[in-house]
Structure formats: structure tokens, C-alpha cells
Amino acid sequence: MDAPLVPDAPPAEALAALDSLMAQGAAFLGSRYAIMGGAMSWVSERNLVAALSNAGAFGVIACGAMEPDRLAQEIVATQALTQKPFGVNLITMHPRLDQLVQTCLDHQVGHIVFAGGIPPGTAIKAAKEGGARVVCFAPALALAKKLVRSGADALVIEGSEAGGHIGPVSLTVLAQEILPHIRNVPVFVAGGIGRGEAILSYLEMGAAGAQLGTRFVCASESIAHANFKRAFIRGAARDALPTIQLDERFPVIPVRALQNAGTRRFLDHQAETIRRFLAGEVEKAAAQLEIEHFWAGALRRAVVDGDVENGSLMAGQSVGLVTREQPAVEIVQELVNQAAHALAARRG
């Protein structure tokens, strides 16, 4: 007889109790577990998304800068790999947001996740009228309430521990601020989550489920370059730091990433650009663009090409909990078992 994929299964009573805590989130997603895959550009594509959904979690395609035709191809390719539900993450600032929403609807995507800002009411209305469930990111309680009034069917609250573009508040604080007050729609927590015990704690606080990104980068099915995965496996929580801004006159959108030669060179680039501005060699608007364009294409260089010295290694602080490459189903089952074991221990 083959050995179980994940040994030391928790008691059936604990798994049933965990199912009960996850019931609202799992029902909303249509998945076995209330665990969403965080949408990571160049990583959250057909292979990882389908693998997560097949494993009982809920995969989410990262549309990023894709055009509608390209997104349609990715949706169809994902549907060929899984019969399970999955979602699509759309950036609200995309110039063809309305067309992207329609592309999702045309291909029967059941969940549309709006990220990167407050989605326009027209996009929410179109998604809902087309039969999709709308998920929005809420960085504060007042905005969470506004989004629910605007039609959001569920919310994600993402703390500053997350990878990529981040807000200023930790998940620990956001959860205390928002979870007790938003009960009429499911609220998923995100940012710095890498183990099942943490998922359980937030479920007990009232979360409907959790979203994890960094933990899934090193899934076997992830197409991330071997160099990119090795950087995550070697990385510690203290290595994933937000972008440093040198001058408040030239704002830098904070991005949490593993430090490398590129991040150090970005500081030099900012300093030199600011020097040129002060010397009258470049206008302020042009200087701001030079700073903003430094990282153009940097994430693709790291994820796809494997240039981990000059590319962007966007990672959450949970990167320290990534220790090896594993199949997605094994990672998901580990998270579930950790949560159930913790629940069994608490209940004696």
C-alpha cells in the first residue's frame, strides 16, 4: 500500500471543525478549502492556478498588463487543465478594464478580483450583471464599508507583510480593525501567512478564509525560474523589505521584495536622479518618470529569465517559511493539517 501523501493526519473531528470554520469562504469560492491563491504576475498563470484549484484551493489568474485577447487565451488554457472554479485578478488602472471584465464574463469566469485601487462602479456593475462574484481589496474599515455598499461580494484585507505592492498597515492590525465589523460578506485575510496555524487564528477571529501567494511560488507546478525559486528557498523574513524612498518630493510606491543588486542600484539611481533635478539638468516630472521606470520589466526578468540579481524578487515576509519545492496539493494539505492539528490541540 502506498504511503499517505501527507503523514500524521489530524483527527476527523478537528478536520470537521475546520471545515465548519471555512464553510462560508469555501461556499463563496466553490472550492474544497477557503484558501485563495494570491495573484502574482508571471507566476499565477494557467499551470499554478489550475494546480491550486485541483488541490482544493482556489487559483487566481494574475491578469496584470495582459490585453483582452491574451487574457482570453490564459482563461481557456486554465479551463483545459481544471474543471474546478478559479478567478481572475484585474488591475483597476488597466486602460481596458471594461473589456477585461467582459472577457472574463464571455468565458464564464465566476469570480473577478479587482486589485490596485478602488474599482469604478461601472466595472463592478458589469461584473455582477454578467453573473460573476466581485472581490475587492480593502485597506481600511471605511473603505471596506464603502466597497460593500458599492456591490463587492467579498473582501480581501492584505497586510504590509505581503509581497509586491503593499499598504502601510500590518494584517494583525487590519484584522482587528475590520473583521469584527464586516459580517455581511466574506472577508479573506492576506499578508505574511505561510502556515495553517495562522489561517486558523484568523478564521477564529471571523475571517472567511485566507489568501496566500509567496507560499505557492515554489510549488512544483509554478513556472517560476529555478533561480527565482532558489532565492525564495534561501530567503529569510528579514530579507523581504519594502522599497526605500530617498526624497518625499519623488514618491516611490512601496514594493516588498528580497534584496539584491537591483534594489541597491535603485537607491543609487534615485540619488543620481535627484542630484540631476537639483542641478537643473532635468525637470521634476521627467525625474519622477525616470525613477518609476527603473523597475520596468524587472519582475519578468527575475521570474521568467531567472535574473535574480537585477530583476525584482517580489516576496512576502512569509518567504522564510518556504523551505523546498513541493506539489501544490502537498502544500495545501500541509496548511490544512497544520490548522486542524492546532484546532485539535486547543480543544483538547
UniProtKB/TrEMBL annotation:
InterPro entries: Aldolase_TIM, NMO. SUPFAM superfamilies: Inosine monophosphate dehydrogenase (IMPDH) (SSF51412). Pfam families: NMO (PF03060). The keyword Ribosomal protein does not apply. CDD domains: NPD_like. Keywords: Dioxygenase, Flavoprotein, FMN, Oxidoreductase. Transmembrane segments: none annotated. GO terms for molecular function: dioxygenase activity. Gene3D superfamilies: Aldolase class I. This is 2-nitropropane dioxygenase.
